[in-house]
Design goal:
Layout lengths: L1 E6 L5 E7 L1 H4 L5 H15 L58 H17 L3 E4 L9 H10 L5 E5 L4 H7 L5 E5 L5 H6 L2 E5 H11 L1
Parallel strand pairs: 1-3, 3-6, 4-5, 4-6
Antiparallel strand pairs: 1-2
Helix pairs in contact: 2-3, 4-5
């Protein structure tokens, strides 16, 4: 098991904590991490693009000229794709871009992302993270003390004061242990976990 330092909100070391090798010491599977990121980005796509095919464009119900004898190529409709104002060939239609990723694969990807953060020394454990009032400067002070101004912060459960104090910081994202995202773990430079969040992660994903 890996031992990591535990800090308080002032950035002072207050102890150490052992991290489970089942979560933070696995073999990094880059293919599954990549797949999890692609899945996340695919889920974010709206898939609402739409263009009209020749059957959906208004007009064009009459043959523009007779079949033979005009010197022109034969035409059946002025809404064919080669015509101005015609329909689109293989027009995009609203669709879902999501695909399936197995539960074991998602867990393996998450463990790989957590392991990589620890290996890069970009994982920080804090003893607790609570605020008495809602002020952005509270969270700014904590991130500066921990040298984690670009961070993915994970709490055990929802905390209104911490959430509202964080939402105005563009480079800090807050979540709970049960809603971890591989994409966000990799997106932000530092991963900040509370001790309770670490215990929850080890219980849920072991």
């Amino acid at each position: 098991m890996a031992n990591v330092s535990v800090y308080n909100m002032d950035g002072q070391e207050v102890g150490t904590m052992e991290l489970s090798d089942e979560i933070f010491g696995v073999e990094v599977k880059e293919n599954l991490v990549h797949q999890a990121v692609v899945l996340h980005l695919a889920n974010m796509r709206q898939g609402t693009q739409k263009a009209k095919t020749r059957s959906e464009v208004s007009g064009g119900g009459i043959k523009p000229w007779r079949q033979k004898g005009t010197g022109h190529a034969r035409q059946g409709s002025t809404r064919s794709p080669q015509w101005r104002h015609g329909g689109v060939v293989f027009a995009p239609v609203p669709r879902s871009y999501t695909f399936k990723m197995n539960k074991k694969e998602r867990r393996a990807a998450l463990k790989s992302a957590l392991t990589s953060k620890l290996a890069e020394n970009n994982l920080i454990v804090v003893d607790k993270l609570t605020f008495d009032d809602i002020k952005t400067k509270n969270m700014v002070k904590v991130t500066k003390a921990l040298d984690a101004e670009n961070a993915y912060v994970v709490l055990q459960g929802a905390d209104k004061n911490v959430f509202l104090s964080t939402r105005n910081l563009p480079d800090v994202r807050l979540t709970t242990a049960g809603a971890l995202s591989v994409y966000d773990i990799l997106k932000y430079k530092k991963l900040v976990l509370t001790q309770d969040a670490v215990k929850t992660i080890e219980e849920v994903f072991a």
